[in-house]
# Entry
Amino acid sequence: MNVPFRTWPARLLARPWLLGFVPINAATAGFGVVLPLLILIPLHGSWGDVAIAATLFNSAVILSSVAWGHLADRYPQRRVFLVVNYAGYAGLYAVLSQVGSIPELFAAYAVIGAVAPAGASASNLLILEKFTEAERANAFASFQEMSMIGSVLGLLVGYFWTLANDTLLSLLYLLAGLAFASAVAIWFGIRDPPRAATTAAVARHPESLFSRLRPVLSFHLAIPFFPKRPSLRPAPIARFRRWAREELHHELPLIMVGSFLFNLSANLFNISYTPYLYAAGLATASIFLVNLSNNVAQTMVFPISGGLANRVGADRLVVRATYVRSVGYLATAGFTLYALARGSTFGANLAVYALLGGAIAVYTPASSLMLFRGLAGRDAGSLLGVNSALGGGAAVLGAGLAAALSIFGSFRLVFLVSGGVLLASLPLWAAASVAYARRRSVSSPSGVVGDGRPGAALGEPASPTKAH
# Structure
């Protein structure tokens, strides 16, 4: 099954109002680096405090995602939700600039996590509603481009700001101003469309689904997406167990568990990475540059990843990207074995973190395509809810595991565990490809699979198509 998928628009900007998303992405990207440094430097916290803050944040994101998704369906005022999200960021960043203790920061960061999902569904539904079917691929690609451009600009702002005065608290005011600028641009630049879509509609479009599954560059996790509100009553749990038994030979459970392990390792690594850079002696401005290398690599690789997945095969790209990520984690663990000079530490991490950024830019669309093809003809809303719950669980577990491992005070151990968990997912992705090939061969009397060619599901190159 070769699903057409674009990650590069015919023109960079599908609509001028999409520029309103650039400042907010700049603000959140800068904040993603400022937050751990704020704990470590002005508040004199520890790596464990960073992990605890991430645990509280991720937990708040998961709990509030269900509520915000339900409200987005019930009240189709997309502009209001976006303004609440972005203006909320602005106010909370300003509040954080005044905190004087770690507990106060924990509380403020948890509130940010509760606000974070407010605009996630609204932005995707806004694009579904404002663009026709023929325009949506371009629109979502443009939306992603604005996200990446904003993230790069935000890290550049952080770099030059800290290079000039190395004052993190005052930088928070600037980030608050950027978030507020997006709130103003959205309020005056967008009108709510007359027709309203529901969150379940996202599952029917590969680009919109990918936009929801893609990790937010600033927070390094995807905002959980529940097209249907999860229920903890006995009946839904029994249905889930029955589904799990019935789907043992389907590729979806393998894909979900593989994604869970990938997200677990990524969260464990990312939460610990900035404290590691600080402990290695890098200056604040240098830490911004290392993070910038990751975002720049994503910005460069992402435009070709969709076409690459269509040509080479999503299954093959997922395995290769996973392998490259695991090598990057293990290489970072290797850096801790030697007393490198400060300049060498900076250069080595700059290169490796850029490699990790390129790998995630390949992995995310490819894994999304594998998930999308497995959802065909099934209850996509419920299955996406399960997948999001697993992703949210991986985020919380990764943060909690980082906090537990910080007791031993060994970044090397964390990076080795991250690499090991990621390597453990490789057999699952390979098994998912085999399961898909078998399922397609059974349903096809001619014995061909995928898009009509033997072995297409295993990642063999598809027939030549136009790259987008």
Summary: Residues 446-468 have pLDDT under 50 and may be disordered. The first helix runs from residue 21 to 40. The chain is about 70% helix and 0% strand. The two ends are 18 Å apart (CA to CA).
